[in-house]
Design a protein that fits this description.
By secondary structure, the protein is of the alpha+beta class. Helices cover about 35% and strands about 15% of the residues. Strands 1-3-2-11-10-9-8 form a 7-stranded mixed β-sheet, sandwiched between helices. A hairpin with a 3-residue loop joins strand 2 and strand 3. Helix 2 runs antiparallel to helix 13 and helix 4 packs across helix 11. The N and C termini lie far apart (about 45 Å).
Amino acid sequence: MFSLDLRALLSFLATMLICVPATTHARSSRAGLVDSLFGQHGTGNGNLCDLRETRRGFLVGWIQSGGEWEILRVGAARSEWKNETPMAIGSVSKPFTAALIQLLAQEDRLNLDQAANRYLAEPILPDGKKDGGLLNGVSEIRPIRIRDLLAHRSGLPRVADRSGEAGYDGNAPYQGLNSAALYRALKKTKLESYPGEKVAYSNLGYAVLTEIIERIEAKPYEEVLRERILAPLRMHSSGVESIANSALPDSLDGSARTAPWILNELYAGGGGIRSTAPDLLKFLSALLRSGRSATERSSEPGLADALKASFTRDNGGWFLEKDKRGAPKLPQPVSYHSGLVRGFSSYMVFDVKRGRGVFLLGNSSHLANPEKADFKCLMRIGDGLLESI
């Protein structure tokens, strides 16, 4: 005789919903559609999706809430990669970190509207003064809250100022930011806007969130991520650590293959996760399930609630259609995030109401600064596929 953990069984069955592949007809039609979308949007200098560079490739995946799914390989991926080839997902890591914050909030281990300084070893986040004076003429500025960090409304700069730090390499700006380095950087950090004033994308803000997660859990971020999200969703090929046999990154200018950025330590929570196409389908499946009513969910309820709470930028990591700049907007409300690190690019978009989601993983990025590359092709291709499945 043996006992059966019913909740564990239901969670397992829920994750297995993605194991219903598309029909042969659907595979044929969507493969043609994906080729057409790359042909339409993948041209131009600096375009991340230009497949005329023969070393460039993409893994493209889609899923519907009924369980139908497909993974397609485009460009160099057709011959050189497998569906299980690990890829850096860049800033698509942020929604994972936001979900961890939401889990802690649900457990009353932190308050989203509390000052973030309360959860740090030292109350060291800047107070709103800039260059020795008051920021924007405001004499009293409220503290940076957890919600501000989630929503990129903290006023913190994009990256930490680590100039003059021993061993710091400006060509690898996201490597080696441990707790000691973070607190040193924050001591000389000036706010660029006061908390809550406006949206200004900040990887540093997510490094602070990663530090807070590690302090509350008393464990490394990688361990918390694995225990609380990756393991429950059976994303066994994902993690922060460097994964062997990953796709080789490429450059956009036809030169030698690009040395990828390494986002480890506290920057891991903002862009350091590596994953595979099958694992990202599991994540999309969990996101779609979490948007259903509580009685319809079959995944672990705490995680489902955390994922649902993080659907918007203000609550946790995802952007909404209204946030897009310089890219066509879809007629339906969706949540999305892109990721760009040197060597890799990614895009994930999903529509809970219609029960569908799409991701793209590519080995293309800008040789020097990926943040200046034309990544809107990722949105156009991903959104085009989302509207057609």
